């Protein structure tokens, strides 16, 4: 899915306006829930940059994708020490190239994730959204 920065920002602003219109008690409840579920783009980027093996997926709760990436990366690393070393290098390079996209787009990926979480929270609080 291609994430559009302008659309993400527009959605962020729309949700921000909805939250600001909430009564104080509901707004407080929203912030309590959102503090637990909203993710930090810098943490995501750091996990992606430092480990380049899919650990940033675990941060977002995408366990299957994280396990796949980590397993694929570790398998590639282990294969390097066999007679099929070239395949191990290719596997690691593949994961690194795929994950570079997430690294360079970490801000927009997290902003989109946070928008989705914000929408879920507002729905949980029975707030009417004009989509």
Explain this structure.
The protein has 7 helices and no strands. It is mostly helical and 131 residues long. Helix 1 (5-21) packs parallel to helix 7 and helix 3 crosses helix 7 (106-124). It is elongated, with a radius of gyration of 19 Å. The model has no long low-confidence stretch (mean pLDDT 88).
**What's the end-to-end separation, in Å?**
19 Å
- Share of residues in helices: over 70%
* Low-pLDDT windows of residues: none
- Order of secondary-structure elements: HHHHHHH
Radius of gyration: 19 Å
Give the tags.
single chain; elongated
Task: Summarize the topology.
Layout: H1 5-21, H2 24-37, H3 41-51, H4 55-59, H5 63-79, H6 85-104, H7 106-124
Helix pairs in contact: 1-7, 2-7, 3-6, 3-7, 5-6
Provide a brief overview of the structure.
This protein has 131 residues and is mainly α.
């Amino acid at each position: 899915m291609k994430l559009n920065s302008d659309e993400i920002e527009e959605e962020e602003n729309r949700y921000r306006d909805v939250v600001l219109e909430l009564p104080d008690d509901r707004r407080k409840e929203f912030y309590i829930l959102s503090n637990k579920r909203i993710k930090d783009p810098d943490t995501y980027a750091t996990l992606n940059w430092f480990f380049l093996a899919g650990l940033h997926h675990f941060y977002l709760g995408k366990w299957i994708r994280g396990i796949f990436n980590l397993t694929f990366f570790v398998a590639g690393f282990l294969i390097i020490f066999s007679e099929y070393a070239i395949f191990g290098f290719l596997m690691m390079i593949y994961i690194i190239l795929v994950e570079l996209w997430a690294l360079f787009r970490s801000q927009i990926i997290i902003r989109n994730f946070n928008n989705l979480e914000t929408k879920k929270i507002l729905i949980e609080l029975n707030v009417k959204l004009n989509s």
